[in-house]
Amino acid sequence: MGNVEQTTPPSGTAPEWVPDARELADLELLLSGAFAPLKGFLGSADAASVTEDGRLPDGTPWPDPVTLLVPHDHPVSAGDELTLRDPEGAAVAVVSVTERTADGLVAGPVTSLGAPEHGPFARLRRSPEQVRAELGERPVLAVTMRGPLDDLDEITATARELDAAILLLPLAFGEGGPAVVRAALKARDRLPSGTAVAVVPLAPREPEIDLELREHVATAYGAVEHLAGPEPVTLPGPPHRRGLVVFFTGLSGSGKSTIARGLHDALLERGTRTVTYLDGDVVRRLLSAGLTFSRHDRDLNIRRIGFVAAEVARHGGLAICAPIAPFAATRDEVRHMVEGVGADFLLVHVATPLDECERRDRKGLYAKARAGLIPEFTGISSPYEEPEDADLTLDTTGISVERGVERVLDVLTAGGWLR
């Protein structure tokens, strides 16, 4: 990460947060100096200014808000030192919080807590300062790339014209990151001797913004000239080869678990997909043991289910899960997890009416909730936010389990997930 200031982590009572993948990538670029002149996450005035005219309030051109969001109920406030951790729990930086907005925006300068431990090609994640020291006083031709380079002759000719060293900057982000780095290393071997490679975790933006950010990063690495490699042509595999999560949501007693189990059995009989069923009771007993039924713990349970389902889908599997999942924001988080690994997400709303669910009440839960014996019971004392983005809405009132399963199978077949 270069010669950035380091501190020791704050005490265990300090607020903490694990940013998402894009925020962590932006954090690395802030700490390394690749996002210079930015020193931290932008505040509301800065972000609004960037959105309007592409400049910070001080007039500095900057095409994209670099922001950090935390949930509305997170305790961090202005004046705090917010410790940022990676997904494995390692403390990587501290934000000296200058602003905390009602919608969750946290702003302030960042300070490194030490160079993070990276996975593949860690040796190539070098700061602008390190690369400039290596290349010396020669002019630099920087080539940013998100996929293979299609014209090495142009790069070679431009470098000769400028009498410049060539610096390949693979913009490695997400699951496809290692492939971009491999493409850069192959190109290096075919380019003039002395061509350097430095991995930059720049998350993709809209095309125009992405290009402007590439220019900023190239300049930070000392480029006098910048060439943007072509965007890779990606042809996603056919749906029946992609990972898929079928996510059932609905009230207790709606029939979602019954339909989900029936779908699992039907897919096993077909034998054309690798199928995993995340049973709610089993998840509660093994994955979420100790959690209560408070809103916080219920959301955490859904996130855990979503994480496991996304991992199944990441490797091409089909995961079925059927929690109540009453809150739209948490369902959106799960969709984001799944789509973030390159898989598909199918939301099935089992919209059986409350009175029918209460009539069934096989476990007597509604009666206990009505009597006040079960606090925060969805549909009675806690809300259920009906999905507006369901791929299938299914009312199980008066239909057989077989018919309900057929409805889901029809959607899977029409979408190409089943051959």
Q: Would you kindly provide a written description of the structure presented here, covering whatever features stand out?
A:
By secondary structure, the chain is α/β, with parallel strands linked by helices. It has helices at 21-32, 44-53, 128-135, 152-162, 177-190, 207-220, 256-270, 280-286, 295-314, 328-340, 354-360, 365-370, 401-414; strands at 16-17, 40-41, 68-69, 81-85, 91-96, 99-100, 105-112, 140-145, 165-170, 196-197, 223-228, 244-249, 275-278, 318-321, 344-350, 392-394. Strands 1, 2, 3, 4, 5, 6 and 7 form a seven-stranded mixed β-sheet that branches. A five-stranded parallel β-sheet has the order 13-14-12-15-16, sandwiched between helices. Strands 10-9-8-11 form a four-stranded parallel β-sheet, with helices on both faces. The two termini are 48 Å apart. The model is unreliable at 1-11 (pLDDT under 50). Its EC number is 2.7.1.25. It catalyses: adenosine 5'-phosphosulfate + ATP = 3'-phosphoadenylyl sulfate + ADP + H(+).
Short structural description:
The chain is an alpha/beta fold.
Key phrases:
alpha/beta, globular, EC 2.7.1.25, 419 residues, 5-stranded parallel β-sheet, P-loop_NTPase, 7-stranded mixed β-sheet, 13 helices, phosphoprotein
